[in-house]
Amino acid sequence: MISSSAPEPSAGVDGSDDSADGDELHLPGFVAESDVLPPSKGLGLRLLALLVGIGLVIGLAFVGGAVLFTSLWPTNDLLCDASEGTCSDVSAEQIAEFSSIALPEGVEVESVQFATVEDVAGLLHATVVLPDGAADPLRSGDYRVAPTLSWAAEADALGLDNLLLYEGIESVTGPGFEAASGQRADGRTVILIRVSRAL
Fold first, then answer.
1. What is the pTM of this model?
2. Using CA atoms, how far apart are residues 117 and 32, in angstroms rounded to an integer?
3. Alpha carbon of 68 to those of 62, 71, 98, 167, 177: distances in Å?
C-alpha cells in the first residue's frame, strides 16, 4: 500500500540538515564557502579607516619634507607681491639673500624696488646704509671691483666718497649681480644694489 505522507528531508553528509543551509551545496571533499570567507560585516569601514590612515601618513610626510626642503634651500621668488608691477615690502634679510651680500645686523633699508619678469627672473634695486663703523661686505664677499657699470652715473650722483663699483664673481653668484658702495658725509657706508637673477 502506497503511503501518502511527504518524504522526510535527507540529512547532509556531515549529518546536518541541508534545508537549513539554503542554497549552499555540500559535497564530499570540499569545504563550504561560509567556512572559508571571513564575515563581511564592517569590512568597508575597516578599509576606509585604513585608506584614511595611509593618506594622513603620506600627507604628514609630504608637509614635513616640504618644510625641511624650504629650511635647507630657501626660495627667493616671493620677496614681495610684484604681480601688479613693482613692490617695496622687502626686508634687509631678503635683500641680503637675494643679492648674495652679507649685510650686517642693523643695516637700514633706504629704498628698495622689486619686480619680476614673466615669473622667471627677479629684478632688485635697493639702497642700504650700514651701521656706523660696519665694514663694507662688498670688499670681502662674492663681489669684485668692476671697471664700469651701465648705471655708474646714478651712483656718482650721490656724491659718495671712495665710490667703488662691483660685480658678482660670476662663477659664484652667476651673472646679473652688480653693486656700488661709498661713504657719505657722516662716514657711514652706502651700498647700491642692482641684481637681476633667475627665480
1. 0.60
2. 72
3. 10, 5, 20, 32, 28
